[in-house]
Amino acid sequence: MKLKFLGTGTSQGVPVIGCSCEVCTSSNPKDSRLRSSVMVTTDEDKKILIDCGPDFRQQMLTHKEDRVDIALLTHEHNDHVIGLDDMRPLIFKTGKDIPLYCSSRVADEVKNRFPYAFADEKYPGAPAFELHEIENNPFTVVDTEITPIEVIHFKIPVFGYKFKKLAYITDAGFISEAEKDKLKGLDVLILNCIRKSDPHPAHFILPDVIKLFEELKPEKLFLTHISHHLGLHNVEDKLLPSGMHLAYDGLEIIF
Length: 255
What we know:
The chain is an alpha/beta fold. It is built from 7 helices and 14 strands. The strands form 2 sheets. It has a 7-stranded mixed β-sheet with strand order 6-5-4-3-2-1-14. Strands 7-8-9-10-11-12-13 form a 7-stranded mixed β-sheet. The model has no long low-confidence stretch (mean pLDDT 98).
């Protein structure tokens, strides 16, 4: 299987509008971060998208992706769902609704934000989705077993997802001991890390991620959902403990 980072930035993206810091003005492509999303390609060449934010169209074109077989949503914040309307060309091409897998709360929010996609009589050109409400239990789609990981983002539960020995978690500030048990023995763990210091009420910062790396002991850990406050990629990546890396847009991981 393969995971490709379509975006590794926070809700504002990097560069941030109006910011002239060294990260936002960097010429290194690894310092430019679209909103966080990944594409998983299964052994059977099925495409599983995780989150569909405002940069979805640009991400698909930039990374030469032209298909989504199913989409998993972590939660309902705009930087993770508002690009769903841009799936229309994929829906028109196949003539099939895009299956969306998410919690019941997220499903309700998707229906509220895109009511025209669920209308009994859709206007010509409207997107169409097939909603599947999931709970915190493993499920199988496109011949792939997926295990949700429930984490807390400020005060709301958010799903991360585990495939084989890889887990992807974004927008987390707390992981319970029960959920940590699902994250032991991993080859690859991907965690959000918004900045180097100054505790955040909804996201992990670097000391939190280092502590989890030492506790869970994955073979490799990649940081994502990164803001311009974390620093320059080529500088900060070298300062991380061995086995930890900053992810960047376009990075591919085979697992």
